[in-house]
Amino acid sequence: MILILLGPPGAGKGTQAQALMVARGLVQLSTGDMLRKAVAAKSELGLGARAAMDAGDLVSDDIVISIIAERIENKDCERGFILDGFPRTVAQAEALDLMLEQKGSQLDHVIEIRVDEEELVKRIAGRFSCAKCNENYHDTFKRPAKDGVCDVCGGTEFTRRSDDRAETVRARLEAYRNQTAPLLPYYRAKGTLRSVDGMNSIEAVTEEILEVLAT
Ligand code: ADP
Ligand code: ADP
Ligand code: ZN
Questions:
Q1: Which ligand lies nearest the alpha carbon of 37?
Q2: In angstroms, rounded to a whole number, what is the distance separating the alpha carbons of residues 199 and 201?
Q3: pTM (whole model) above 0.90
Q4: Cβ of 15 below 6 Å from ligand 2
Q5: Nearest CA-CA partner of 134 in 4, 25, 34, 20
Q6: pLDDT surpassing 90 at residue 215
């Protein structure tokens, strides 16, 4: 099964991709995570992406398309995958259609996670993750069971994304409105788009997505 999770920054794409990975055994492909790793490693790719990410702008289509094209050839993608944060422009969506066509596969579902802007700002402001295993948390909505200790790996160090600052968040929300929201009519026209209410609890949103996948 090939699935796209679409939604503004902070909507819960990563959180839901993780839950679906557990529930359905699909791999999560997050272009944001891949780019952050490249930046941390100071690879050529990372050096090319860093300025745009710091500013809250999108990285060039060429860069992210080539990352995904390479990644989906990996053996772990054979049974399907969840795209989290890709595509983010119509050009990326068109490139994805072509890639899948060449592989003889196709998109099964595009799921839009809808969340009000005020809530997005709260989710982003409280977001942090385990420095060791990358498990995501929230200051109020998803705290580790034991303060300061990761539920998954027992790690005790946590990080916050440098682009989760208020000024950068505004630019990211604008990039979503201008460049990514046009994907909604694009997929609606193809008949693959379904929307879920992302304002509900993490568990309720997972339930709703699983219902969509079962249809
Ligand atoms: P969010 O949690 O805001 O949805 P991501 O982790 O998906 O953020 O992405 C972080 C940043 O990485 C984006 O602001 C953008 O600069 C870059 N990025 C990630 N995916 C893409 C993409 N598909 N196209 C262009 N830029 C991307
Ligand atoms: P995205 O990948 O779309 O940017 P994340 O999955 O990283 O979003 O979620 C952003 C923050 O909001 C995280 O700290 C996460 O724990 C929290 N969060 C995600 N979904 C919900 C939800 N349904 N209710 C409350 N908090 C949520
Ligand atoms: Zn951890």
A1: 1
A2: 7
A3: yes
A4: yes
A5: 34
A6: no
